[in-house]
Amino acid sequence: MPPTQPDARRRNTLGDISSLYVTVLLRAVEAEGASTEGLRERFGLGDTLLSSPDARISIPRYMRLGHAAIEQTDNPALGLTIGAMTRAVDAGKAGLAAVTAATASQALATLIRFSLLTSRNSRGHPAMDAATGRARFYSIRPYNTFNYFVVDSILASWTQLLRELTGDNRVLQRVTIEYPARGLEGHFEDWFDCPVQFGAEENTLQLAPGIADKAPQQAQPAVHRQLVTECSQMLKRIRAGWSIRERVKEKLAPMLERDPPRLETIAAELGLAPWTLQRQLAEEGCGYRQLLDETRRDLAWDYIRETHLSLAEIAWLLGFSGPAAFHRAYRRWFGISPGEHRRSVRRRR
C-alpha cells in the first residue's frame, strides 16, 4: 500500500537553493575538465531553470547533483573549486550589496544577512558576528558524501569574496569544520591559507587581524545603502508571505534535535509572548502540538525520500527517543514503516 503523501503543494522542508548557485557548480565541473551535459539531463537542469535568478531547486536535489559531480570529476574537494569560482554576482542583489560595503566585515555580514534571498536551510540560517569577525554556517546533518561539499563550497565562497574585495589572499585566521577529517587536511589548509580544524562543534571562518576593517576596492556608501534597502524590502516581502504556522515551522525545524522545544522557546525566538503565539495559532486553526507533529512529519517524509541518513539518525534529528518511537510515528503518519517506504522509493528510482 503506498504511503499517504503530505500536501504536494508544500515546499521541501529540508530547504532550497537558487539556480544561481547551480550554475556555479556546473562551471566548477567544466573547470575540472568534465562535461556537464549528462548532469544537466539527469537532474532536469534546463535552460529555463538556469537562466532564471528566481528559480530554486531543493537542497536534497542539489546534494545529489554535487555528489554526482564529485564522482564525475573524481575530486572530493570539488566544493573548494565551487567556492573559488563563486562571484559576488552569483548571490544576486545581496552579492552586489556586499561588494559596495564600507568594510570587508560589513560585506560578509551583508551577504549573510540576506542569505534567505538565495537559499533556505532547515538547520537554520548563517550568522556573522561583526564584533569578533566570525562567520558561522549551518548544514544539514549528520554528514556524509552527499553534503561535505556544501560546507566546503559555502566557506570557500565566503573566503573568495573576502579575497576579491580586499585584494589579499590571507584573509583568515582559522577555519573550523563540523565533519571529521577525510585525509584532505593539507589541501584544505593550503587553500584557506590558515589552520583548519575538522570535527569541530561548528562550521566557522575567523577573519584574520586587520581584514575586518579593510575597505573593499568597490566600496560605495550611497550605492550600498540603496542596495541594502532593496534587499531588505525583498526579504520583508518573503517573510510577509509566511503565515504564523510557517514562521513557527521555520523555527522548529533546526531545533528538534534530541528534545523538541517548548512553545515558550519558539515564542521567544519570534519575539512574542507565549499566550500571543497560542492565540495567533488558534486563529489559523491549529495548536502548537499539532504544528510540532506536522513539522516532524514533513521532515521525516523528505529525510526518507531525499537522503541516505539511517533511521536512527533521522529519529535523533526529529527529537524522538529512539528508532522505535520514530517507527511508530511514521506508521501513524503514512500507514507504512520508514524502512518499507525508503525501499519502495529506491525501487522506483
Describe the structure.
The protein contains 17 helices and 8 strands. It is α+β, with helices and mostly antiparallel strands and 349 residues long. It has 2 domains: 15-234, no CATH class; 243-348, Homeodomain-like (Arc Repressor Mutant, subunit A, Orthogonal Bundle). A 5-stranded mixed sheet has the order 4-5-8-6-7. α9 links the parallel β6 and β7. The chain starts with 14 loop residues before the first strand and ends with a helix. The relative contact order is 0.11.
What general form does the structure show? globular
**What count of structural domains?**
2
Residue share in β-strands: 5-15%
Strand order of the largest sheet: 4-5-8-6-7
Can you summarize the main beta sheet?
5 strands, mixed
Number of strands: 8
Percent of residues in helices comes to 40-55%
- Please report the number of helical segments: 17
Q: SSE string, helix = H, strand = E?
A: EHHHEHHHHEEEHEHEEHHHHHHHH
Distance between the termini: 18 Å
Rg for CA atoms: 21 Å
Q: What is the residue-mean pLDDT, rounded to a whole number? A: 90
> Which ranges are low-confidence, i.e. pLDDT below 50, for 5 or more consecutive residues?
none
Coarse structural class:
alpha+beta
Write the layout of secondary structure elements.
Elements: E1 15-18, H1 19-31, H2 37-42, H3 47-50, E2 56-58, H4 59-73, H5 78-84, H6 93-99, H7 104-113, E3 119-121, E4 127-129, E5 134-137, H8 148-166, E6 172-177, H9 185-192, E7 196-198, E8 203-207, H10 221-240, H11 244-252, H12 263-269, H13 274-283, H14 288-306, H15 311-317, H16 323-334, H17 338-348
Parallel strand pairs: 6-7
Antiparallel strand pairs: 1-2, 1-3, 4-5, 5-8, 6-8
Helix pairs in contact: 1-4, 1-5, 5-8, 6-7, 6-10, 12-13, 15-16
